[in-house]
Every structure is written in structure tokens, then in C-alpha cells.
Amino acid sequence: MDLTLNGHVANEDGIASALADFAIGMTLDRVPAEVRQRAKYLLLDAVGLAYATKNYPFTKVTLAAMQSLGSGSSTVIGHGRILQPRDAMVMNGLLVHGLDFDDTHLRGVIHPTASLFPCTLGMAEVHGASGEALLAAYIAGVEVGSRLTSAGNGGFHETGFNPTGVIGTFASAVAASRLAGLTPRQAWMAQGIALSMASGSQAFLQGGAWSKRIQPGWAASAGMTAATLAKQGFIGPKAPYEGRFGLFSSYLGEVRALVDLSLATSGLGEVWQTMEVAVKPIPACVFAHAATDAAMILHEPWRRGSDEPAMGAIDAVKRVRVKVPREVVKTVCEPVEAKRRPANAYEAQFSIPYLVATGLLKGKFTLQELEDDAVSDPQVLALAAKVDYEIDPDSTFPRHHTGEVIVEFADERRLEHREDVNRGGADRPLSNDEVAEKYLSNVNGTLSPARADQVLDAVLALDQRPLRDLLTLLAEPV
């Protein structure tokens, strides 16, 4: 089945050519000031997460693996200049994405910064580019990646692919092309080459696999590789998105009818998707944020309404109904029994029963709620066993990731709360000040207050100060 541009032809040579023209031709002075500013706060969020992830076992294992492949002089955040460029991108991607607390473009359901920051940081370091050039390439990559994954209309998750790994490769290819000084035609070719490198299975959803954590960095590394090959004249497919063997037909299979290719180029340079990127307020899958918030809001009325001990209150619960968008069920609701008893922190982050039960019992969900003792808490698991999901008939997904929690007690009492607009999304965003607060919270315990402020200032002055200022700070081991 051939796909068409659905009447929207931004470039007679196709989508990849149109995206290349935009990515290479975009100038930072034509990007609205609020977009440039928000982009820097998105980068700040990523930097904070990279420091927060530093001491986890998966970080140490991955670093050892990357070091076994050889040494180099590229920056690994908080670890020094120790790896080859592509290996440093893999490592930095894992640092940003490892806790699944990083930003998300909600319509596309992609974590754009987790691949684009490692890619643009590494490319800028290799090519001696300025902070201004890094920022421009990052914004171009966000605009391209968010549109490509939006065109899939949720189809990637439906077929078992993670858009962050798949589409992150194409976004990184165009960002890398810009920093490497490619022509629009070469950047077009880089996307064709990237088609053979794009990957990202969702098999991680069961069994506690670490593979999702490495997908953004792999996409960054693949993007650099594709751009470098294109610069040297390597020839790839000219239509990587359209056609019977293009991205959408090959990856979406039976659900390719969902695709709207007009979204891949619509509004380029006019409507800025960077402003649509959501900063996570909760360290869990964004699909579950609204339901988790609803549960946390119900914590206080539940606590006030019961004089019984916690387990008594749980025993009094008949069931907990959670209404979620149909499109998120495979990721955060099924298989139900496995979701009710997550085996580890990563499974817990993708479990509506665990997240809702924790929110109801504790009134919060932070990184502490992902520690081993929290995930195995018998009270939380007892309540999670009573959590069922339903399809939300009033969902406005993907614009909003709605969530509603209804607690039904055996004595006919009932508590309920609905979140129509998820916190952190484009229609209810965290302010720049709140993003800065999140950054400071995430680096607390890893960086001294003075050092944390230095890094914050360097990121927010990225386009005004030499990039070496930021690189020096990020490279220093902590």
C-alpha cells in the first residue's frame, strides 16, 4: 500500500527533502524568543536528570560496556572526557532517559531531548560549534522529530515500536547534519540512510529490561553516523517516509491507515512544536500522569474520611476504577496481573495499578517511590490488586492524556476525581521557574549548590557564552 502526502505537498521531492530544507535553512533569529528560551529550559531539565541518574546500577554497567569499546575525548556528563563521540552519545542518552523522567512531546509521544541533546552536544564538541549553533540544531531536531512521530498518530506504540528510538534517529540525523555543515541535499540523504538504522522495540515493558534506557542514545549515535556518511557522499533512499517500504508502511503495518503524512511538514517554521514538549512532573510514563495526579488528590479526603489503620482502609475498598485513553492500555494497563505486581522500578513506572495505589496511599510520587522497598510495599500491592482500568469515553488523547480515578468502598462510599488536562502538558505546562526547581531537586546530593548554580547559568546562557564554558562544567567528574 503506497502512502501519499494526503494533498499536502511542502516540497515536490517529498517529506525528507522538505525537512532537510527546513533544518538546514532555519536561522535562530527567526525562532521566537519564547521558543528559544523554552528550549534552553528543556535542556536544563535533561542536564539535571543526567546528574540524577549517575549512580544507578544500569549507569555503571553501561559505562563499563562503553569504556570496553575504547577511550576517547568526548564528554560524558559528570564522568569526564572519556569516550569516542558515538559512545558518549549512547551514554549521555542513557543518563538523560534512564529514570524515564525526561520531557515528552505528547501528540507524538516521543522523548525528543533524550536523543537530541546527546547528539547536538557531541556534534558541537566534535566540530567546535558554538552554543548558539547547538541550540539551533536542537530546536530543528525537535521540530522534525515531533512532526514525524505525530504523523504516525499513535501507530508506533500500537505495533510495538518506541518512537523515541525510531523517530529519534531521523531527528538526530537532521540535527547532526546541521552541525556537520551538510547541504540540504546531503541532509535529505542522511534521513534515507537513517531508515536502515532506526530501531526501538517495546519489549522492555515486561521483565524489567533496561533496553528502553539505551534507545535515545543509540538514536543519537545513529543520527551522527547517518549524517557523516551522507557528508562523504554515501547514497541512501530518497523517500524514507513515503512508499510501500518507507518508514510508516514498514513499521506500522496493519495500522498504517492511521498515518497522516501532512503532519510531517505542516507548519514548519510557523508553528513551533518545541512549545508543545511537556516537562514531566512525575517520574513515570506520561500516559499515567493524569491518573496518578487524580489519585494523589484523593489521598487527603480518603485519609480524613477513615479513622482506621492503613490496611483497614485498604480492606474497606471494594475496587478502584481508573479511566484511561484507549491508546495507552497496552503500555500502562496490560497484562493486568503483571501490572498489579511490578517486579521492579521500571515496571512500576509503566503500571497504572502501582502508580494509582501509591498516589492514593502516600499522596505523592517521587523517585523515592521507585526504590526497591517501595515497589515491594505490601500495602501498595494489596491496593494495586484492586485496581481495574476502563476506556475513557471522554478522552481527548493525544492532545491531553486524561485520567479519572473512582474509589468504591464496600459500604457504598465513593471517592472520585478526574484530570482532563495532564499536568506538565502544553495546555498546563510547568513554568520555566518550575523546571528550574525540578533541575535543582534532581542535582541535589550530586552537585554542590554553587556548582548547581554554575551549570544552570551556563545552560541558560548557552547562546550567549562560549560552549566550552558549559562543556567544561559538564565534563568535570562528580
UniProtKB/TrEMBL annotation:
Gene3D superfamilies: 2-methylcitrate dehydratase PrpD. Residues 18-253 form the MmgE/PrpD N-terminal domain. Residues 283-461 form the MmgE/PrpD C-terminal domain. PANTHER family: 2-METHYLCITRATE DEHYDRATASE (PTHR16943:SF8), 2-METHYLCITRATE DEHYDRATASE-RELATED (PTHR16943). Belongs to the PrpD family. This is MmgE/PrpD family protein. It comes from Paraburkholderia edwinii. The lineage of its organism: Bacteria, Pseudomonadati, Pseudomonadota, Betaproteobacteria, Burkholderiales.
